[in-house]
Amino acid sequence: MAKADRDELIEGEIPALRRYAYALTRDHEAADDLVQDCLERALSRWHLHRGADALRPWLFTILRNIFINAYHAGRRRGASVPLEEAPAPAVSPGQEGALDVKDVMAALDRLPEDYRSLILLVGVEEFSYSEAADILAIPSGTVMSRLARARRKLRELLEGEAIPFLRRVK
């Protein structure tokens, strides 16, 4: 594959990578750094790439792995961003729609990272369950059950009937 073709393929994935990175980090600068690290690693390991069809899941997997490694190392922490600083949608909704967008963004912010990632990958980026499972390195059955719980929790948050998460401490 020619370098120009490779660059064109990768450039087409940058907006989706930035959305996913922002969902993980909740910080625009950290998201841009994460995407840059992802692209740098992808280009340096291009020989491991398995073809144009596998490019998107491969890039998302690299991005997620870099995020997890940085998070565990304590170098990069996610931070909440006030909704006023969040980018406006591409199409400006009406006043009622703007409230809906803010409600959804606030509800997504309250979801745990594993639920938020699944909703973004499957619902927004339109990955299949098996592709999301590969990206997140979890079984497909886990994707389906977590996604069902994530959707239920999101619905509860949007309806105002949310029950707080209970976390098991080991």
TrEMBL record:
The keyword Transcription regulation applies. Keywords: Sigma factor, Transcription, Transcription regulation. The keyword Lipid metabolism does not apply. One of its GO terms (molecular function) is sigma factor activity. Residues 104-154 form the RNA polymerase sigma factor 70 region 4 type domain. One of its GO terms (biological process) is DNA-templated transcription initiation. Belongs to the sigma-70 factor family. ECF subfamily. This is RNA polymerase sigma factor.
